[in-house]
Structure formats: structure tokens, C-alpha cells
């Protein structure tokens, strides 16, 4: 079929026993696991010439054929949403996402996303993410601000996804957390997976967690709070939020992971500042990667937004 792409893979001995969908998720990190499961169920994936279930365990020597249908035409409507763009060329775009902006359409968010804003810009977007995620190589949570890189074409998308998968992309965040740290620096090395009781949450106590490592150091100490520099070495869902909660220091403003306890703050001005802080105390501060075409190292920095600086000032009291 015109536009269809076919990938052939072989399972190595050390990969034997993996679920089919997990194996494909590691091989094709630019695609969501749910999207890959859909391909498997619809017969676009064969194992040694036969259809299989997403949960099927693989054996050493199995030969996989994966057919990726031609991308569906985009059905989303461009929207003239202002963006803070730090760099733009024929292959990629680097922007400073504001807190509150959802990256791509999903349940409850069919309009007003970053993708809608990107579609309104000239230059094109990669189609590998599908019709609803054009150009999206990685994501930030809705309540997180800061740096993102977007792919303008499929070649750039694949090259950037390889860098993220190979841990070649340097990501540095600033995180405002509850409590004072006992040490100046530390590492959280704890696997992350779906919470057993609350499937919308992630947890370090999951039965089948994936390895995750976050390194942190103190940038600034405030009465009852700490501003941290955090370097995630892996890219699990909600990784920084989950890891910091697991060591007793949830991110300020994070109602999902225990960081919205402003009612317990005694000082009325600090309490009001925390109540009015309608976002996560998490900012993607620095981002560095190799340009997918030239190989040159690109590095970017986004300063803390005004609402973040304002809450820091209020907490100095």
C-alpha cells in the first residue's frame, strides 16, 4: 500500500520472554504502547508469520514483521495560540511551553492544545506520531512549563526519538518541593509502574515497574520548602513527581501526588500564594541534544516563568 512502512525484526536470546507489545514499545519509542497494541490487534504485526496477541511472550529467534499504515490525514484544526519559540529550522522547533497548555488532544482536551498551535505554524510536522500527535517526540505534563523539542519531518523525529531512547538528551528541571532536604544532593533509583489501586497514577510500588533514575541537588532553601535541580536519567511517566513524592518531598501544586497541602500552611500570605499557584512547581529548565541533520550539539535554557518566581518570593517569608 502506498505510504506504508514495513519493519522486520528478530528476537535476540536476551529478549526472549518479553511481551510482544513491550518489545515493540522499546523498539519504537516514538509510538505509544496503546497505538502499538492497536496495530497488533488489527493484524499489522506478525510473529514468525502468524498473528499474535499484545501479551504474547516472544521466543529467541522469532521473526517479527511490523506494517505501519500510511499516516492518516490530519483532521485537527489549526488554532492561533501564541507560542514562545526559542529555535526553529527545517527539521525541528524548540519552544518554552507554558503551564496549563496540554501537549496533544486526548480525553477531555479536543481543542486548545500545543498540537493545534503547531498546526497553525508554517513548516510542517512529522507524521510518525499519528494524526493527533504530529511532531510530538516527547511530552510535558499539562501543569509543567518549559522546554520541548518538536520534529518537523519523519527523519528528524526518528533521530530525536533514538536520542531520547539512548539517554543522549540532557534534561534538567527545577522543582519546588515541600520540606527541607536532609542532604545537599541525592539520587532516587526506583522503578515506576502503574499504581495497583489507582490506575491513573504511577507508583514506585508497582508490581511491574520499569527502571527509573532521578538525580537532584538543592538550588535554594526556603522555610519549609526546597527548590531543586532535577536530572531524570530515564523518561517514565510522571517520573520526577513520583520519585520526589516517594522520598517525602512532593512537588508543590501536585494534587495527584500529595503536593497540594496549602491548607495546612499557617502564614496567611504564604497560604494564599500556594492556593493561587494553579500549576505544578515543575519547570523544564534546560535541554540539550544533537541536531538530527548536522549532529551539532544544541543547548537551550528557559528561565522560570513569572508565576513560579512569584510563589518563590512569597515563600521566602
Give a quick summary of the entry.
With 317 residues, the chain is of the alpha+beta class.
What does this structure look like?
- By secondary structure, the chain is α+β, with helices and mostly antiparallel strands.
- It folds into 3 domains: about 5-70, Structural Genomics Hypothetical 15.5 Kd Protein In mrcA-pckA Intergenic Region, Chain A (Roll); about 85-165, Pseudouridine synthase (2-Layer Sandwich); about 170-315, Pseudouridine synthase, CATH 3.30.2350.10.
- Helix content is about 20%, strand content about 25%.
- It contains 7 helices and 15 strands.
- It has helices at about 20-25, 35-40, 115-120, 155-165, 240-245, 270-275, 305-315; strands spanning about 5-10, 45, 50, 65-70, 85-90, 90-95, 145-150, 170-180, 185-190, 195, 200-205, 215-220, 225-230, 280-290, 295-300.
- The strands form 3 sheets. Strands 5, 6, 7, 8, 9, 12, 13, 14 and 15 form a 9-stranded mixed β-sheet that branches.
- A hairpin with a 3-residue loop joins strand 5 (about 85-90) and strand 6.
- The longest helix has 12 residues, at about 155-165.
- The chain is globular and about 65 Å long.
Amino acid at each position: 500500500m502506498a505510504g506504508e512502512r514495513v519493519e522486520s525484526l528478530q528476537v535476540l536470546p536476551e529478549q526472549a520472554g518479553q511481551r510482544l507489545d513491550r518489545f515493540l514499545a522499546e523498539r519504537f519509542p516514538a509510538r505509544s504502547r496503546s497505538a502499538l497494541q492497536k496495530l497488533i490487534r488489527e493484524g499489522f504485526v506478525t510473529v514468525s508469520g502468524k498473528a499474535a496477541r499484545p501479551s504474547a511472550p516472544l521466543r529467541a529467534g522469532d521473526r517479527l514483521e511490523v506494517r505501519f499504515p500510511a499516516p492518516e490525514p490530519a483532521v485537527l484544526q489549526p488554532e492561533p495560540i501564541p507560542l514562545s519559540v526559542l529555535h526553529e529550522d527545517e527539521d525541528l522547533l524548540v519552544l518554552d511551553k507554558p503551564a496549563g497548555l496540554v501537549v496533544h488532544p486526548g480525553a477531555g482536551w479536543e481543542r486548545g492544545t500545543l498540537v493545534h498551535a503547531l498546526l497553525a505554524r508554517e513548516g510542517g510536522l512529522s507524521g510518525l506520531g499519528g494524526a493527533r500527535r504530529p511532531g510530538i517526540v516527547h511530552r510535558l505534563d499539562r501543569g509543567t512549563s518549559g522546554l520541548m523539542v518538536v520534529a518537523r519531518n519523519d527523519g528528524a523525529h526518528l533521530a530525536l526519538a533514538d536520542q531520547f531512547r539512548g539517554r543522549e538528551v540532557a534534561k534538567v528541571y527545577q522543582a519546588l518541593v515541600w520540606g527541607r532536604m536532609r542532604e545537599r544532593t541525592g539520587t532516587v533509583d526506583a522503578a515506576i509502574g502503574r499504581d495497583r489501586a489507582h490506575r491513573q497514577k504511577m507508583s514506585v510500588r508497582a508490581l511491574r515497574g520499569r527502571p527509573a533514575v532521578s538525580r537532584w541537588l538543592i538550588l535554594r532553601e526556603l522555610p519549609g520548602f526546597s527548590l531543586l535541580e532535577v536530572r531524570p536519567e530515564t523518561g517514565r511517566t510522571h517520573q520526577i513527581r513520583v520519585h520526589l513524592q516517594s522520598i517525602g518531598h512532593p512537588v508543590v501544586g501536585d494534587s495527584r501526588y500529595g503536593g497540594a497541602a496549602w491548607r495546612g500552611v499557617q502564614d496567611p500570605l504564604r497560604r494564599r500564594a500556594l492556593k493561587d499557584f494553579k500549576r505544578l512547581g515543575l519547570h523544564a529548565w534546560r535541554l540539550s541534544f544533537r541536531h538530527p541533520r548536522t549532529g551539532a550539539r544544541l543547548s537551550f535554557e528557559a528561565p522560570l516563568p513569572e508565576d513560579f518566581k512569584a510563589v518563590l518570593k512569597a515563600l521566602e517569608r
